[in-house]
Amino acid sequence: MFRFPDISYRNQRKIIIAAFLIVPMALLITFSFLPVANMIWYSFTDWNGFSEKEFIWIENYRTVFTDPEYFRVFTVSLYYFVGTFVQMAIALYFATILSFKVRLKNFFKGVLFFPYLLNGVAIGFMFLFFFRPDGALDTVLSAIGLGNFTQLWLGNPDLINISLAGTSVWRYMGFNFIIFLGAISSIPGDVYEASEIDGANRWHQFRYIILPSIKIIVSLNLILAISGALSAFEIPYIMTGGANGSMTFVIQTVDTAFKYGKIGLGSAMAVILLIIVVIVTVIQKKFFGEDD
Amino acid sequence: MSKKLLMLIASVLTILMIFTGCSSDEGGESGGDKGGDSKPVAETWKDKDPSEIEGDLTVITHRTDIVDSVYQDYKAKFQEKYPNVNVEFEALTDYGGEIMPRMNTEDYGDVQYLPVQVPIEDIPNFFEPMGSLDDMSEKYLGVEERAVDGTVYGIPIAVTYTGIIYNKAVFEEAGVTDIPETPEDFIAALQKVKDNTDAIPMYTNYAAGWPLTQWEGAVTTTAGSVDYYNVDMLDDPTPFDEGDPHYEHYKLMYDVAEKGLIEKDPLTTDWEKSKVMMNNGEIATMVLGSWALEQIQGAGENADDIAIMPFPTNAEKTIFSLGADLNISINKHSENKEAAFAWVDWFINESGYSVEQAGGISAAKDVPLPEALAAGEEKGWEFSMLTPSPEDKKGLLDEIDKESEVGLWLEPNKKILIEAAIGNRDMSYDDVMNSWNEDWKAAYEKVTAE
Predict the structure, then answer these.
(1) Mean per-residue pLDDT for B389-393?
(2) CATH (residue range A74-247)
(3) B410 CB near a chain A CB, below 8 Å?
(4) Tens digits of per-residue pLDDT, B140-180?
């Protein structure tokens, strides 16, 4: 009769590894690799979502690369890119402060992390009310005597991307914050004690103990944030649908594929975005890579 | 070791999946083309007694608002006539967007609508034929629009018309006594509203976007000819030149926005709220289809103040062009086609949906016209269907529109127009029209050359 222990140790190991891997691998393949493979295939066709697909080689890619219109929207990503650094700075600041002894520490942690738990659609609508003329923001400004500074926060094309990037910072800061906090709390307490004996102040502790210890986490967050900036979608799509100069590359991709029925072209744009994100990540790896 | 193994499993599985994925695709397509053995169900189902027809029917609808109320009444009434058919409803918030991925399977309900995104020539691959165009067009309005090779695949659930919905009380307060007939009069009337009342003269609903696409439904009123849209426009590679109906039509949108006769901040408008505001007299006008009339009347206590008028025009005749709402259709892969036909027949002819819920008229020609329409005809308003495109140019307009990304029935370009008008973009009206013309011309040449 077949008994598991009869098999050699090597083979047992193989079987167990395979058995444990098969479920996550199947899920990963069905829901990540297969759709991506399909998307790459679509990007070489002129499919419109319904008709027969016709293979047209790199025609879609040529369309995208020969028309500067498609890349102009990346300037909007710059706003989110700058927002990323603001977001990381705020997150790091709060994470550092809250890792020391502070009154109501857990309460503040909750408050800061809360926005990330909210649904993106809810946040979009919330901020739509917030930015409305005579909405919450204008009311607050008037109340503290800054009434003259009220603007059409979304109606003004010079401000709209700043408003939207600000919303995005508000939403995602909590996520960076919680990761930083986790990383900082893994630093053993006696290191601080030792540094205090040597006369280090809080800034020294941050600069020479905390920052070097969480460098990898910072770079990871940066990669996530930058690819997030390039593919900004949710907040501007819900709040403005890409109107008034807030169009991002992903909104454009979605519009191309589903509004104008050019699934092939839209897939090509998505593949291009994927490649750009991969390139950016590789560059960053090179930049921060020496610790790996 | 483990890394190698992982790679192996991953690559083997990937290859496997890709192969199975492809092969099942092909199998589905070839299987779909077959069939059609004897007489079509469209002809045979009526020979059966209503009680003989049976099955479980899944009906897909876009009316999330009334699926649990009005549709349940429909179900009850339908089952009085066809007791052995069980009806289940499935309401989709974004019909066009949600049905599309499902149509790549065979599971898209037994009864649904022809999605406007499906290219007309592909309709027979997905839907059950309902009869020949000759027979059907005698009985129903608007069936020619999506017919393929003389066969009808869908019947409009209602026939609606587009105009300007306005608040009579606000007009009265502003001192506008006659319904403005020309664009100049209309702008003057809006100016009076702005000067004499607190109401917003025209609410664009820019943020929701789709209300801007409603303007397109009234282009025929501006053109003053039912031949323009589907026939004459196809001969013009640049249909947005000065003097062309589209140019004149959207000029009004631009002018109204430029003169500050719209809401203060278009970016933060809210469709649901706009209905209430209009009912309360905080909004004077909105350009919308007749389907919205009933919703706005129902949004508050002042139902009697809300009425519809024709889009202002310089043309000799005032034409309300009748446009087909979504076309109800039957899944080609349905297992309950007889029951599905029974539902379609009942829904179009007996439910009263088109008048009561869609604010239009019934597609069935033997259902009498509602009173509101008859009153309009006395004022000299004409209600007529558009002339369909010639047979060899069917679907051409749609194809050029998609290829050019002008999007006659989509909002992005209308939003740009408003942004230009309120000074958020450095573009004049002619700049916007020229950019439409350029895109249209390039697509026109590409599509007609094929």
Answers:
(1) 82
(2) 1.10.3720.10
(3) yes
(4) 888 888 888 889 999 999 888 899 999 999 999 999 988 89
Q: How far is B282 from chain A (nearest CA, A)?
A: 16
Judge contact between B33 and B318, C-beta under 8 A.
no
Amino acid B96: pLDDT: 79
CA atoms of B289 and A72, how far apart (whole Å): 36
3-state secondary structure of B323: strand
Q: How far is CA B140 from CA B35, B74, B132, B319, in A?
A: 27, 21, 12, 20
The whole-angstrom distance between B356's CA and the closest CA on chain A is 30
Q: Which of A161-170, A281-290, B23-32, B274-283 has the lowest mean pLDDT?
A: B23-32
Q: What percent of chain B has pLDDT over 70?
A: 91
Please give the interface size between A and B, counted as residue pairs whose CB atoms are below 8 Å apart: 109
Give the closest-approach CA distance of B114 to chain A in angstroms.
Answer: 12
Residues 6+ apart with CB under 8 A from A56: A44, A45, A46, A264
Do B14 and A37 touch, CB atoms closer than 8 A? yes
| Closest to B193 in 3D by CA, of B301, B297, B281, B307 | B281
A187-199: per-residue pLDDT in tens? 998 998 999 899 8
Residues of B in contact with A154 (CB under 8 A): 265, 267-268
In angstroms, the CA B358 to CA B293 distance is 9
Kindly indicate whether the domain formed by B160-323+390-449 is annotated with CATH number 3.40.190.10: yes
**Token representation of residue A67:** 């028309």
Integer Cα distance of B440 and B406 in angstroms: 7
Say if B31 is an interface residue toward chain A (CB within 8 Å).
Answer: no
Q: Write down the pLDDT at residue B25.
A: 44
At residue B30, the pLDDT reads 38
Q: Smallest Cβ distance to B119: which of A17, A21, A50?
A: A50
Fold classification of B46-156+326-359 is D-Maltodextrin-Binding Protein; domain 2 (3.40.190)
Rounded to an integer, what distance in angstroms lies between the CA atom of residue A177 and that of residue A179? 5
Secondary structure of chain A in HEC code, one letter for each residue: CCCHHHCCHHHHHHHHHHHHHHHHHHHHHHHHHHHHHHHHHHCCECCCCCCCCCECCCHHHHHHHHCCHHHHCHHHHHHHHHHHHHHHHHHHHHHHHHHCCCCCHHHHHHHHHHHHHCCHHHHHHHHHHHHCCCCHHHHHHHHCCCHHHCCCCCCCCCCHHHHHHHHHHHHHHHHHHHHHHHHHHCCCHHHHHHHHHCCCCHHHHHHHHHHHHCHHHHHHHHHHHHHHHHCCCHHHHHHCCCCCCCCCHHHHHHHHHHHCCCHHHHHHHHHHHHHHHHHHHHHHHHHHHHHC
Contact residues on chain B for A33, CB-CB shorter than 8 A: 10, 14, 17
Give the H or E element holding residue B49.
Answer: none
Residue spans per domain, chain A: 74-247
What gap in Å lies between CA A78 and CA B412, rounded to an integer? 22
Domain spans of chain B, in order of start: 46-156+326-359, 160-323+390-449
User: B171-218: per-residue pLDDT in tens?
Assistant: 999 999 888 989 999 999 999 999 999 999 999 999 888 899 999 999
Residue B16: the pLDDT is: 55
CB contact under 8 A, A244 and B405: no
Calculate the alpha carbon distances from B308 to A284, B156, B375 in Å: 60, 22, 12
